[in-house]
């Protein structure tokens, strides 16, 4: 189970220097945080010279602290006319500050008029204090900060990126020895690009020895402030120190991708790739985007709480938090998609479930802004309606119009998007260094170096995958008349769900019918939805009994799921090559599997498309561009489309 985060304690020494009571050490030299950051870390890594004329540049830091190193680096990037197009800064932090405390620290250390606005932007974007990785974007996405909240010794092995520079920062080796250990430096060596540099304020002997063992050369240079010496150096191993090379950008002749499927998955990909300057050809068999499952009148979004903080919970938490940031960015650009703002209630099925999950919330240390237990009285006050049980309240959960979100994402892509709607993609074919997509008549729709299949249960067929098992689940929604549940103030989920939408209409559902492809509305489906709603809101049961189920309006859509109920997101495997080399791959890892060059998948999102689509799109865009992965590596592996192929190889089912 993930350990709960313990926030940093705000404290200062008499001279105003931020201080950690837990480690009995200061966050920066008393001479000045930003001056130290620029001298030790920015200049110590040869910046800005080393990043000039680069398309991307990635820095990894071992302790974020008060963010002084990031702010100094961001300011140096802004001041450099020859700066890289995209700057990635990835940092771990075991004890992050609360937002208000971070603002208080910055108020004391940031006097530079050019950096003060950056500090305000950082504090305003500061994420909730929950474990895992949080990706923040600044400068229109050109400066990306990926914060990994948790123990560095556990998180660094889970990073997947190619680092150009390392900021070895943190409390002193005497106060925090684990951060300066050989395992930590080996984790960094796994990420280092050829010639990657490092800098640190310490010259401790065991630090130098561990750096050498991990493949880094070091040299002493003049220190900062009252420190006489510090270390700088490069990654230059004398022997092979890793099994796999860190990720690199896909080599393409042009930055043009075809996305098949214009639902939540495909439109999120369109927005994320266009934000990086890619041209997108978006193909869909319907005449407009979001006409299938993504065309439901409303969808709910919320985290997933489990007692053991399962993989599904961790992925959903990461996706939920990332989606909130992406949606806010779209809204700031003037887009609207009817996103509710009063939170969402998750009702417990019974007292046992309420007790178990309330205990889990407490043991995992979630902040109240993420989730809070709600008694029956509290829940009824929040919902403004009588309810059967209490449960949990997600202040940032809610509902929105999925089709309007898809439209906003397409609009954000602007002229980089070409729509090919009303065209059925039937098959794809690789010729040379390009993929070609053909319709049912064999005519070419589009060609590009990259294809991403994002069309639910048809994705595996088009991509020619035999080891990507998916199934459809029929879901029937019911629209209740205005007089039913019209006072409901927030969306409810539990045994079913109820979402208030325009004109006092309430959307409820949905049925869950495996392998049922019937698109017609059925009275039995409406009846089932009403029964579930009555279990959540028993006071409205008499009103429900007066309804004629056969006369109710609604909608049928089809979810796509895998057996493990996790999405498929990432580079697709070359199954033919894997079958040929099955014997050699019997003990393989996912990184060992051959991949189809330029072919990716984003499908099988089930009922969690709203919370998974944006993060999955960022993951795929990062893979294509060779950028830092926005997820811990074990989580990215759990949604890798090749995971079923790997199981088949390990079980001896191929070759």
TrEMBL record:
One of its GO terms (biological process) is methylation. InterPro entries: FAD-dep_OxRdtase, FAD/NAD-bd_sf, MnmC-like_methylTransf, SAM-dependent_MTases_sf, tRNA_MAMT_biosynth_bifunc_MnmC, tRNA_MNMC2, tRNA_S-uridine_synth_MnmC_C. Residues 260-655 are annotated as: FAD-dependent cmnm(5)s(2)U34 oxidoreductase. Residues 1-236 are annotated as: tRNA (mnm(5)s(2)U34)-methyltransferase. It comes from the Bacteria. It is found in: Cytoplasm. It holds the Pfam family DAO. Its cofactor is FAD. One of its GO terms (cellular component) is cytoplasm. Coiled coil: none annotated. Its main location: cytoplasm. Keywords: Cytoplasm, FAD, Flavoprotein, Methyltransferase, Multifunctional enzyme, Oxidoreductase, S-adenosyl-L-methionine, Transferase, tRNA processing. Its EC number is 2.1.1.61, 1.5.-.-. GO terms for molecular function: flavin adenine dinucleotide binding; oxidoreductase activity, acting on the CH-NH group of donors; tRNA (5-methylaminomethyl-2-thiouridylate)(34)-methyltransferase activity. Residues 116-233 form the MnmC-like methyltransferase domain. Residues 257-622 form the FAD dependent oxidoreductase domain. The keyword Cell membrane does not apply. It catalyses: 5-aminomethyl-2-thiouridine(34) in tRNA + S-adenosyl-L-methionine = 5-methylaminomethyl-2-thiouridine(34) in tRNA + S-adenosyl-L-homocysteine + H(+). Catalyzes the last two steps in the biosynthesis of 5-methylaminomethyl-2-thiouridine (mnm(5)s(2)U) at the wobble position (U34) in tRNA. Catalyzes the FAD-dependent demodification of cmnm(5)s(2)U34 to nm(5)s(2)U34, followed by the transfer of a methyl group from S-adenosyl-L-methionine to nm(5)s(2)U34, to form mnm(5)s(2)U34. In the N-terminal section; belongs to the methyltransferase superfamily. tRNA (mnm(5)s(2)U34)-methyltransferase family. In the C-terminal section; belongs to the DAO family. This is tRNA 5-methylaminomethyl-2-thiouridine biosynthesis bifunctional protein MnmC. The gene is mnmC.
């Amino acid at each position: 189970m993930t350990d709960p985060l313990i926030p940093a304690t705000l404290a200062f020494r008499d001279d105003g220097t931020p201080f950690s009571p837990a480690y009995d050490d200061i966050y920066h030299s008393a001479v000045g945080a930003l001056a130290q950051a620029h001298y030790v870390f920015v200049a110590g890594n040869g910046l800005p010279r080393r990043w000039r004329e680069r398309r991307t540049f990635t820095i990894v830091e071992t302790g974020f602290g008060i963010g002084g190193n990031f702010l100094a680096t961001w300011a140096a990037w802004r001041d450099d006319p020859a700066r890289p197009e995209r700057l990635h800064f990835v940092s771990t932090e075991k004890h992050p500050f609360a937002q208000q405390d971070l603002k208080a620290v910055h108020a004391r250390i940031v006097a530079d008029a050019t950096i003060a606005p950056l500090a305000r932007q950082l504090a305003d974007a500061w994420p909730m204090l929950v474990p895992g990785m949080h990706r923040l974007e600044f400068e229109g996405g050109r400066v990306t900060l990926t914060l990994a909240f948790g123990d560095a010794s556990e998180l660094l092995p889970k990073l997947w990126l190619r680092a150009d520079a390392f900021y070895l920062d943190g409390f002193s080796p005497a106060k925090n020895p684990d951060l300066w250990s050989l395992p930590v430096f080996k984790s960094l060596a796994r990420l280092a690009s050829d010639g990657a540099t490092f800098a640190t304020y310490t010259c401790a002997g065991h630090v130098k020895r561990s750096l050498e063992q991990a493949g880094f050369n070091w040299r002493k240079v003049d220190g900062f402030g009252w420190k006489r010496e510090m270390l700088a150096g490069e990654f230059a191993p004398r022997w092979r120190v890793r099994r796999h090379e860190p990720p690199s950008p896909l080599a393409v002749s042009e930055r043009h991708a075809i996305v098949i499927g214009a639902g939540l998955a495909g439109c999120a990909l369109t927005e994320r790739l266009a934000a990086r300057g890619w041209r997108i050809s978006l193909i869909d068999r319907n005449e407009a985007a979001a006409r299938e499952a993504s065309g439901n009148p409303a969808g709910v979004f919320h985290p997933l709480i489990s007692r053991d903080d399962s993989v599904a919970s961790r992925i959903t938490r990461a996706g939920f938090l990332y989606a909130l940031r992406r949606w806010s960015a779209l809204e700031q650009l003037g887009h609207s998609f009817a996103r509710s703002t009063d939170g969402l209630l998750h009702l417990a099925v019974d007292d046992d479930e309420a007790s178990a999950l309330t205990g889990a919330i407490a043991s995992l240390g979630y902040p109240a802004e993420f989730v809070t237990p709600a008694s029956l009285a509290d829940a009824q006050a929040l919902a403004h309606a009588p309810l059967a049980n209490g449960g949990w309240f997600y202040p940032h959960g809610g509902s929105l119009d999925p089709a309007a979100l898809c439209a906003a994402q397409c609009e954000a892509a602007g002229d980089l998007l070409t729509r090919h709607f009303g065209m059925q993609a039937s098959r794809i074919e690789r010729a040379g260094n390009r993929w070609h997509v053909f319709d049912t008549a064999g005519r070419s729709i589009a060609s590009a170096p990259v294809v991403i299949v994002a069309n639910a249960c048809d994705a595996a067929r088009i991509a020619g995958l035999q080891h990507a098992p998916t199934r459809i689940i029929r879901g029937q929604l019911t629209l209740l008349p205005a007089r039913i549940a019209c006072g409901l103030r927030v969306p409810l989920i539990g045994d079913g769900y109820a979402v208030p939408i325009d004109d006092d209409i309430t959307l409820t559902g949905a049925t869950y019918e495996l392998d049922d492809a019937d698109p017609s509305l059925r009275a039995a489906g409406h009846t089932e939805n009403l029964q579930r709603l009555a279990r959540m809101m028993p006071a409205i049961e008499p009103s429900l009994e007066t309804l004629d189920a056969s006369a109710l309006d609604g909608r049928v859509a089809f979810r796509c799921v895998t057996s493990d109920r996790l999405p498929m997101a990432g580079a697709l495997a070359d199954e033919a090559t894997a079958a040929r080399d099955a014997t050699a791959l019997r003990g393989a890892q996912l990184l060992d599997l051959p991949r189809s060059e330029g072919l990716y998948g984003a499908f099988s999102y089930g009922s969690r498309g709203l919370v998974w689509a944006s993060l999955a799109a960022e993951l795929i865009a990062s893979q294509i561009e060779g950028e830092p992965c926005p997820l811990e590596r074990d989580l990215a592996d759990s949604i890798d489309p090749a995971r079923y192929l790997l199981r088949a190889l390990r079980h001896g089912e191929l070759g």
